[in-house]
Amino acid sequence: MFFSRFSSRGPRDFCGVRGVDGTGRARGRRGRGALVPPAVLACTVGTVLLVAPTADADVVGCGDRINADLVLQTNLVCDGPGLIVAADGLTIDLGGHTITGNGTGIGVGLADIAQTLTVVNGTIQRFDTALRPNLWHSTGLEVRGLTLQDSTVGIDADGSWGGVKIVDSVLRRNTRTAVMGAGNHVRVENSRLEDNNAGIVTYTNAGTSAVSSVFVRNTVALRTGNGGVDAIGNRFLDNTTGISASLSGLGLRGNTFVGGGIAVHGTLNIFGIEARDNTFARAQTGLLLEDVQLSTGRIEIANNTFLANRQNGLRIRMGGVGTGVRITGNTFRYNGFAPGDPDDSGQVFDSGALATVGTFTDNLAVGNAGHGIEGHDAVVDGGGNRARANGRTPQCLGVVCTG
């Protein structure tokens, strides 16, 4: 009778404790178990007494080293480090809970041989660094459904030569940088970065992809140096600078930039730009290429809308000839009505587009404070440009515009 009743339950329900087998371990994902706290439950069959541990496998505390997949069961408030991940390839599920620091240490960090990590579903806040891969050894970090806030740095992947993927997450009020990376690729999808000093900063052969995300009120939403940016379908709202790039390439497609200072600023050597189907509205300047040398590739600015920017919608001031710069099919409306003081050369930034290089083809300029299109030096007329109701005569300078 005893053996038949016992065996019918099997290891999944040992002595009435679900998930605990006869080894005294609670089974987690991937079949790995963690020792659970000692004896608590007794069950009696006749004169036989059996003692089994409870199934509280995922109770952890601040500073604990994690060697198996984890689902956090409670909030943690830490005076030092939060969780230290000491095994490779783990998933840390915060279970909707919050890990809170005191402004020092790392919220969740990779140690030892750990190279890849996935962290999901919760909040990490008030650390020096909320989340940090293993320096020099990390090959992949994935973040999903996280809020990283009120730390000095949200994710510090500086010196980590793997990729960082951030999906469906919020990074806000980080006083230095929300995401920092060198030598790796940072990809952000369907996420929100707001009120950070810098949203994403990458450099040293690093690249950044931003897709369907929102960047709000950051000092710099996205900065890259000696890397590249591919931004598709994002919204940049009221950032002091939306995107800043030097020694880099830029791919901008289907983004909306509204308010703030300079929406996109390219400087120094540029390894090609494609800006297509974007809207630049109510910023100080929409797209600014200044002190730029085009090292390789081309600059293609096509089918964008530049609307009600305080200075120029588009400004290109760079050396060289304009054969590698093409400005095609864009619309410039109502720009230049708060141009500020002229620069040292007396230049006023009140035209829809102002350029020293580039071929202008099939553009439309309406109602801008200065010229519709103002071209100097190596600007080339590609034909088909139109302009009307702009504040200066002629309607276009350096190219021919019809009404």
Q: Can you give the mean pLDDT?
A: 84
Distance between the amino and carboxyl termini: 99 Å
Give the biggest beta sheet: 6 strands, parallel, barrel
Major sheet strand order: 31-33-36-39-37-34
**Oligomer, anyone?**
single chain
The tally of structural domains comes to 2
Shape: elongated
Radius of gyration, in angstroms, nearest whole number: 28 Å
Number of helices: 1
Helix content: under 10%
Category by helix and strand content: mainly beta
Low-confidence runs of at least 5 consecutive residues: 1-57
Counting DSSP E segments of at least 2 residues, the number of strands comes to 44
Q: How much strand content do the residues show? A: over 45%
Notes on the protein architecture:
With 403 residues, this protein is mainly beta. It folds into two domains: 2-52, no CATH class; 65-402. It has one helix and 44 strands. The strands form four sheets. A six-stranded parallel barrel has the order 31-33-36-39-37-34. β1 and β2 form a beta hairpin. The termini are far apart. Residues 1-57 have low confidence and may be disordered.
